[in-house]
Structure formats: structure tokens, C-alpha cells
Amino acid sequence: MVLSAAGEPLELRELPVPEAGPGQVLLRVRACGVCRTDLHVVDGELARPKLPLVPGHQIVGETEDGRRLGVPWLGWTDGTCRYCRSGRENLCAAARFTGYDLDGGYAEYAVADERFCFPIPEDYPDEQAAPLLCAGLIGYRSLRLAGDGGRLGLYGFGAAAHIVAQVALHERRRLFGFVRAGDEDARGFALELGCEWAGWSDELPPEELDAAIVFAPVGALVPAALRALAKGGTVVCAGIHMSDIPSFPYELLWDERVVRSVANLTRRDGEEFLALAPQVPVRTHVETYRLEQANEALARLRSGGVRGAAVLQL
User: Fold this and answer.
1) Using CB atoms within 10 A as the burial measure, which of 141, 175, 214, 233 is most buried?
2) What tens digit of pLDDT does each residue of 87-134 get?
């Protein structure tokens, strides 16, 4: 499936099988997750993708020698800049991203730099493993940056939140879920996954939060989350794109509250999370689509109709 221009539907095209270069592997794609980042790319909210582009960065594929590997968003870094040399390769200015700078997994075949691929845990079927590679990894990094506080709020209960909730409960945290006003299905999903309270995103929880992670790309949720925080708490903005954050009074930030973003991931994040996931164990809730149904999957994600994660199954 090919994106020719921002804002246009993906086109089903017959392309040559890509050739693996030095250090790369050729993968027969078995599944690819459909991520909100893909939606931002397709809708033109991330402005500089290579075009034409094969989207998709939650790839589960099989190598020519039979190994099952996962390909995440971070596809290449230079390894020499001050960020790479200080363990912050996620901030590398020269980084190249799968399904953005590099063709991704909405296809039968893909190539990837083997250094940035992860072995897939054996207990996970392809479609269950795919969401771990972005929703899981970004969620995991967000959770680490949120700190160790026991009362955690999750704003937006999609693919990432439904994975993070399972990890947070494994760590014996208390969960509070926030969903779009009136979305009873999402509220019920949050409660099913272990939130002790779930309500609308403009409501205050019954107790102050030690941390909140904002997964929904809605800037107005940042001051809403700050209002719910205890002193010294942290709001983590977990998305790659967000609408403008409205102005808010300084008193919401006072008392050492913190607002921070999460950018991309590191290979260490992937190694840690994919080792942890089977111990929890994380179980992903997925809706599967055929490759040629990619536009349908994106439309359902855009409308907020996906429960858990959407995955293209090949």
C-alpha cells in the first residue's frame, strides 16, 4: 500500500521485492500494526515523509533463514552524534524512521537494518506481537519517564494505553482512566483492563495523581492532566504530534509539577520491554485487517472506533 501524497488514500500497487543492502535483512511481512503515527503521516500532520511511501512501522516479519524479527519506528541512527554517544539515540538528528523516511510494512516484503530489529518473543502470534513494537515501546518509555508514583492516570485509552495498563498493574500501581466524553465503550474497556476509576477527560479523578500519561493527541488534555496532579507530579505527552496546548495559569505547574514529552525510542527500550512483556504477561487486543483494507483500518482508527490495536495480517 503506497502513499503518493498527504491526505490521499493509500493505493494498492505491485512493487518489486526490495533488495537488502549491507547490514540489512529482507523480511517477508507477516503482520504490521496500524499506528496513530501512520495516521499523522497519511493525513499530512507530519510534514516531511519520503514520497511515495510505504507506511507502517510495527512490522513482524520472517527472514530468509526463518527467524522472526520485529521492526520498530527507529530504523537507523548515525551512531556518532552526541545523543547516540550518550545513550540517547532516540534524539539523533540524522535518525531515519520506518514508514516515514524508510519504506515500512504495509507490504508483502520489507528491508530493515538488522541492528535495529528485535527478536519476537515466542509466545506471541504475529498479530499479537505487532502492537508491542510501537504502542508497547512508546508506552513503556512513557511509563519509565512518568516515575514510580503509585497513582497513574492514562488519558486516551487506545493501543498504547491498553498495553501500559497491564504493565502498570504488574508493577502494583493504581490506575485511573480518562476517555473522550460520552465514549462508554472506551470507559468500559478501561475498567475491564484494571482501572479502579474511569471517567471523561475533563473530569477530576477521586484522588490526586502522581503521574499522568497523555496518549490522545489533544493539547487541551495537558492542563486537564495538570489539574489532576498532586504536588511534584509529572505529565508525560506520549504522542509524536499534538494539537496546540492552550495557555494555562502558572499555578497548575507550581509545586514542582513537570510536563515532558517522549520522543521515539531506543534499542534498549525495545530490549527491556520485549523481555518484560512475557513476564507480565501483556496480552494485546487486536482487530485484524487484510493488507488491501489498510484505508479501512486507518479510517476506523481516525474515528476512534478501534478497541485496542489494529493490525494488518498478511
Assistant:
1) 214
2) 999 999 999 999 999 999 999 999 999 999 999 999 899 999 999 999
**pLDDT tens digits for range 15-29:** 999 999 999 999 999
Taking CB atoms within 8 Å and a gap of at least 24, the contacts of 199-208 are 201/155, 201/156, 203/178, 204/228, 205/153, 205/176, 205/178, 207/151, 207/176, 208/151, 208/233
Fold match between domain 24-133+284-313 and domain 137-261: no
pLDDT digits (tens, 9 = 90+) for 277-287: 999 999 999 99
Task: Using pLDDT thresholds of 50, 70 and 90, give the confidence band for residue 47.
Answer: confident
Say how far apart CA 233 and CA 294 lie, in whole Å: 39
C-alpha–C-alpha distance, residues 136 and 284, integer Å: 9
User: Do residues 3 and 92 lie in contact, with contact meaning Cβ atoms separated by under 8 Å?
Assistant: no
Q: 24-133+284-313 architecture in CATH?
A: Alpha-Beta Complex (3.90)
Report the top-level CATH class of 137-261: alpha beta
User: Counting every residue, how long is the chain?
Assistant: 314
Which class for 197: exposed (0-12), middle (13-18), buried (19 or more C-beta within 10 A)? middle
Q: Are 280 and 170 within 8 A, CB to CB?
A: yes
Contact 273, 140 (CB under 8 A): yes
Q: Residue 237 contacts by C-beta under 8 Å, 6 or more apart in sequence?
A: 214, 222, 259, 260, 261, 262
The domain ranges of the chain are 24-133+284-313, 137-261
